[in-house]
Design goal:
21 helices; mainly alpha; 2 strands; 427 residues; Serine Threonine Protein Phosphatase 5, Tetratricopeptide repeat
Length: 427
């Protein structure tokens, strides 16, 4: 029988669909449609009738998506001895498709290896079928084999970025968290190199793998990468919680800065947060900032309602009275700050102007205070300078200022989070 039904292109009749989800297993499903067999006069061959008959029957079964029946017919072909290389190749081509369609990855894998060893598979066929076999092994929960075939997919030239995600997911569901982290990082890097945004699930795999491993340092680093790529309020809330609950965090000194960052990342959501932020600002001698926070709370519909509405009103009135009194003595306070032997008052006055939205004035005073010296916490002053520069639209200056903070303590943590917020990249 002259072969007009089988060729090297006979393996193209299927597609791949991939979905990755952190809350459920990845399913990489090989969808085998009606097999499309092209005539190939360039490479004619002959098939003996005793083999051709079961192969024709297997092809018909594949067309009808009866994969088990197709495999049974191929066993009839196997029973015929002394197959020629051409007959062997045709049999394995059909077995490969039937194995994938019938969700028998082991059968498909053996057929693939046989065809590859015989040089029958074209380059694009190797890629597509390695991908399908990897997905079939994953679906069968044979994770070590899935890893082997995902790697084989890359070895034969596969470039589908979703396969990097599948590799990380495979390690994760197999409880191999060190390799999950490694594969996730490599996958994110692959997306970056391709100029594409890596899926959020990859970053979630990183954080989850760190949690499962009990590695707090790795979790913090992964959370920063996740938040930089997908700056959702809930991720920011977790990041800020990580910083604010570190042992020894100087809440009385930097608590106000946590609130500033929380406000900048959309994390103020309840009346208690607005109230505490405003009260801390008043205590720090920053009434304009306090008044601005209360006003935002009212605009958001969070303050001025409910059982505590009267208390909210009292705070708003207090903030306004404090701001009115402060404005009256602002010029004198600035002059007095310049007379002090150190720069503390200049920095504080600068932050007061920040609350009024007078950013250029604030920048000049804070810079003057840093230059004058004598600051108990010079990096706090740099942090505040960077925040004001960013607020003033001087992003490059603000980033440079924040990057100059390298103390390694809580102020460094807050500066790093501002860098993430400003640049969109984990520092």
């Amino acid at each position: 029988m002259k072969s007009r039904l089988f060729s090297g292109r006979a393996l193209a009749g299927f597609g791949i669909a991939c979905a990755v989800a952190i809350t459920s297993p990845v399913i990489l499903q090989a969808v085998v449609g009606s097999a499309a067999y092209a005539e190939d006069e360039a490479k004619p061959g002959t098939v003996r009738p005793e083999i051709g008959k079961p192969l024709q029957a297997a092809k018909a079964a594949l067309d009808a998506k009866k994969y088990g029946e197709a495999l049974a017919k191929l066993k009839e072909a196997d029973a015929v001895g002394n197959k020629t290389p051409y007959e062997e190749a045709l049999t394995e081509q059909l077995r490969l498709i039937a194995g994938i369609g019938g969700e028998e990855p082991g059968v498909a894998a053996k057929a693939f290896d046989a065809l590859q060893a015989g040089g029958t598979l074209q380059a694009d066929q190797k890629i597509r079928f390695a991908q399908a076999i990897a997905g079939a092994y994953f679906k069968a929960k044979e994770y070590p084999s899935a890893v082997t075939w995902i790697n084989k997919y890359f070895q034969v030239g596969g470039t589908d970025l979703s396969m990097h995600s599948l590799l990380a997911q495979t390690y994760y569901v197999n409880n191999d968290f060190p390799n999950t982290a490694k594969a996730s990082n490599e996958a994110i890097d692959a997306y970056d190199k391709a100029g594409q945004q890596a899926p959020e699930t990859l970053y979630q795999l990183l954080t989850s793998a760190a949690t499962k491993s009990g590695d707090k340092k790795a979790y913090a680093a992964a959370l920063e990468r996740l938040t930089a790529a997908y700056p959702k309020p809930e991720y920011w809330a977790d990041l800020l919680h990580q910083v604010a609950t570190k042992p020894g965090f100087p809440d009385s000194r930097l608590g106000l800065d946590i609130f500033r960052l929380q406000a900048a990342t959309g994390g103020l959501s309840n009346a208690g947060q607005y109230m505490e932020y405003s009260e801390l600002a008043i205590q720090a001698g920053l009434p304009a900032e306090a008044k601005a926070v209360v006003d935002k709370g009212y605009s958001a519909g969070v303050l001025g309602t409910g059982a505590e509405a009267e208390r909210h009103g009292r705070l708003r009135d207090m903030a306004k009275r404090s701001m009115d009194a402060d404005q009256a003595g602002q010029a004198a306070a600035e002059t007095e700050a310049g007379k002090q032997p150190n720069g503390i008052a200049l920095v504080n006055t600068g932050m007061n102007y920040y609350g009024y939205g007078q950013y250029d004035k604030a920048i000049g005073l804070i810079q003057a205070g840093i230059a004058k010296g004598g600051l108990k916490y010079p990096d706090d002053a740099k942090l505040h300078l960077g925040i004001v520069q960013i607020a003033a639209g001087k992003k490059a200056d603000g980033v440079a200022t924040l990057k100059s903070i390298k103390t390694g303590d809580a102020v460094n943590d807050i500066a790093r989070l501002w860098l993430i917020k400003t640049t969109g990249h984990a520092a």
